[in-house]
């Protein structure tokens, strides 16, 4: 059985292959599968966006498709930036501006609790889906630290490790990440079917 990943992100592909490799004969990125498609992510939740992406790619490819949607949820900001994490500052993917805005919005807040959320959906050509979520809990630091990772990693502080996710190796991060947790939860559901 073939699985198409609704992404061309090389890091994501490696992580997914490591965790789900034994469940599928072949795991391909959209590019490797010859699919050029951009899903309009207009859902109001991570799960809605992930499901829409997975269903569209399963329909286009006639194969199983896996999609995820993820972001940062900050307690003091009522879960923001949430589904708008990548474009929090108004420009998609401007990590520096997003981090500056996050620090501005948290000025004066004592509660720095936050978590990364990842919604993962596997859609099959018959229309059935398997859904899972994963989380990584931490706090928002008062200043950036570390140069590994991307997005909010320089601000996402892990109290039990005494550092941000930008201060640990990508291997360490992948072992504890919200995406890894979602993938393991999905794998458990697939094996239980």
Give a quick precis of the structure.
With 193 residues, the chain is of the alpha/beta class.
Structural notes for this entry:
31% of the residues lie in helices and 24% in strands. The protein is an alpha/beta fold and 193 residues long. It has a 7-stranded mixed beta sheet. A hairpin with a 4-residue loop joins strand 6 and strand 7. The longest helix has 16 residues, at 46-61. The protein is globular.
Give the tags.
193 residues; alpha/beta; 7-stranded mixed beta sheet; 31% helix
General form: globular
- Spans of at least 5 consecutive residues with low confidence: none
Secondary-structure-based class equals alpha/beta
Proportion of residues in helical segments: 25-40%
Mean pLDDT: 94
Kindly report how far apart the N and C termini lie.
Answer: 16 Å
> Helix count?
5
Give, in spatial order, the strands making up the sheet with the most strands: 2-1-3-4-5-6-7
Largest sheet: number of strands, sense, barrel closure: 7 strands, mixed
Count of individual beta strands: 7
Radius of gyration: 17 Å
| Order of helical and strand elements | EHEHEHEEEEHH
Strand content: 15-25%
């Amino acid at each position: 059985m073939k699985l198409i990943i609704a992404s061309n992100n090389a890091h994501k592909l490696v992580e997914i292959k490591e965790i789900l490799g034994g469940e599928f004969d072949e795991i391909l990125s959209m590019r490797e599968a010859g699919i050029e498609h951009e899903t309009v992510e207009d859902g109001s939740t991570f799960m809605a966006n992930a499901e829409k992406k997975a269903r569209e790619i399963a329909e286009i490819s006639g194969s199983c498709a896996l999609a995820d949607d993820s972001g940062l949820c900050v307690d003091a900001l009522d879960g923001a930036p949430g589904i708008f994490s990548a474009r929090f500052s108004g420009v998609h993917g401007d990590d520096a501006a997003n981090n500056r805005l996050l620090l501005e919005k948290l000025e004066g807040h004592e509660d720095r609790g936050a978590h990364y959320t990842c919604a993962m959906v596997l859609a099959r050509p018959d229309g059935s889906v398997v859904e899972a979520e994963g989380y990584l809990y931490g706090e928002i630091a008062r200043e950036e630290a570390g140069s590994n990772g991307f997005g909010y990693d320089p601000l996402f502080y892990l109290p039990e490790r005494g550092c941000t996710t930008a201060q640990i190796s990508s291997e360490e991060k992948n072992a504890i990440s919200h995406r890894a947790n979602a993938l393991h939860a999905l794998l458990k559901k697939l094996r239980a079917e």
